[in-house]
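Input record, target 12 of the design panel.
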């Protein structure tokens, strides 16, 4: 028993040492790059925002600084001359949908642009515009007409433009891994097993609605398959596990390129370990439901013209419920005879210790974004005098994509995006 726990403690200390090394690397990288990034604070907004986000932000800022006034079509003839002669005007003209007077008001510049020439506006007014300015205004008019067509009127024009902010993008990563496994299960065999395993992970992260972009939601689906053999090479452990995790994290921004997200998650796991040598009780069942503490650190930096992102995530359960039979109790007694006493047990740090470490690097390759990294898992428990542990180290590789999902009522805004189907 003493040697067994010494072995487990050594593996736990090794894993904790790896965690400390990862945290030191992330901290040093953040400090070194922060000094370089401090000189380009004026370009942070342009670097961090896509076209849609920048457009939405400019519209929102202009609306906050602009005093809106609504005019009918007959009143605009005189008012438009004042606006054309004073481009710095603080008044925005918002026109109802009128086929006789098709005017779109530009809230960013204060200049009225028309889809067709109108005598009442052009009379006595001479405006000289460069070809670039005319091209820019034509593009704005085309965009305004598209939004007016979707909204059904000019009054809701700016509301439709602000709907860009309502679409939160989803970061989805799909990775595959391979690595080494160490396993032991006293219910099946007192011997230790080692071998190779494969892992599949699908992860999605997006902002939760109505949280002012402060809380993110993370969904992880993990499938784990492995085959291990004992020291005498006369028996094998075949294992299969699947788990799902739902986490929420509050985001801190100590630096525009550095994010720290702290929160928790709920994780459910179901799996089994099969011993090819046993004739009686050849299989053990794993079923866990845990509450976890979670920490994520993401650092973005540039390498020449390429944008890279390093992420480290640590997760450990602090309370939960697990399934474990009493030593010597068969599954025939549990599921056929109904002897289910003490098979469900509360777990915490006193009888179960588990942690996960996830280190990834995202980098562009042509038109795709690749993700490579390391995934380490340590699972140990001692319930009903049964010792179990599964320790794995995987090298992960896969792809990442960022997309904007919309469905239901959001389908009416589908024309704001380039869709190959709609």
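The sequence produced for target 12 reads:
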């Amino acid at each position: 028993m003493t040697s067994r726990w010494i072995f487990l403690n050594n593996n736990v200390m090794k894993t904790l040492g790896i965690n400390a090394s990862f945290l030191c690397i992330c901290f040093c990288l953040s400090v070194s790059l922060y000094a370089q990034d401090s000189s380009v604070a004026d370009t942070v907004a342009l670097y961090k925002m896509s076209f849609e986000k920048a457009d939405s932000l400019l519209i929102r800022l202009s609306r906050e600084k602009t005093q809106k006034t609504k005019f009918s079509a007959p009143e605009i003839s005189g008012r438009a001359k004042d606006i054309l002669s004073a481009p710095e005007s603080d008044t925005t003209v918002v026109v109802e949908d009128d086929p006789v007077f098709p005017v779109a008001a530009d809230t960013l510049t204060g200049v009225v642009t028309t889809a067709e020439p109108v005598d009442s506006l052009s009379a006595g007014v001479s405006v000289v515009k460069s070809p670039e300015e005319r091209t820019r205004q034509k593009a704005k008019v085309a965009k305004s007409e598209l939004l007016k067509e979707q909204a059904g009127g000019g009054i809701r024009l700016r509301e439709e433009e602000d709907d860009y902010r309502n679409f939160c993008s989803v970061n989805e990563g799909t990775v595959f891994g391979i690595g080494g496994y160490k396993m032991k299960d006293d219910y099946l065999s007192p011997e230790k097993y080692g071998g190779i395993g494969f892992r599949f992970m699908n992860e999605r992260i997006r902002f939760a609605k109505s949280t002012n972009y402060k809380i993110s939601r993370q969904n992880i689906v993990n499938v784990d398959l492995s085959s291990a053999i004992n020291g005498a090479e006369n028996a094998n452990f075949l294992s299969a596990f699947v788990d799902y995790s739902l986490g929420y994290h509050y985001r801190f921004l100590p630096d525009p390129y550095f994010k720290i997200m702290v929160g928790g998650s709920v994780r459910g796991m179901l799996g089994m370990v099969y011993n090819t040598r046993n004739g009686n009780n050849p299989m053990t069942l794993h079923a866990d439901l845990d509450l976890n503490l979670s920490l994520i650190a993401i650092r973005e930096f540039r390498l020449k013209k390429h944008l890279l992102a390093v992420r480290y995530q640590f997760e450990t359960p602090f309370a939960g419920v697990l399934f474990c039979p009493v030593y010597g109790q068969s599954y025939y007694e549990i599921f056929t005879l109904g002897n289910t006493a003490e098979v469900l047990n509360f777990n915490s740090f006193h009888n179960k210790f588990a942690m996960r470490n996830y280190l990834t690097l995202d980098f562009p390759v042509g038109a795709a974004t690749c993700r490579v990294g390391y995934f380490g898992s340590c699972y140990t428990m001692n319930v009903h005098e049964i010792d179990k542990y599964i320790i794995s180290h995987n090298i992960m590789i896969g792809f990442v994509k960022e997309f904007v999902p919309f469905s239901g009522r959001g389908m009416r805004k589908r024309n704001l995006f380039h869709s190959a189907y709609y």
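The mean pLDDT is 75.
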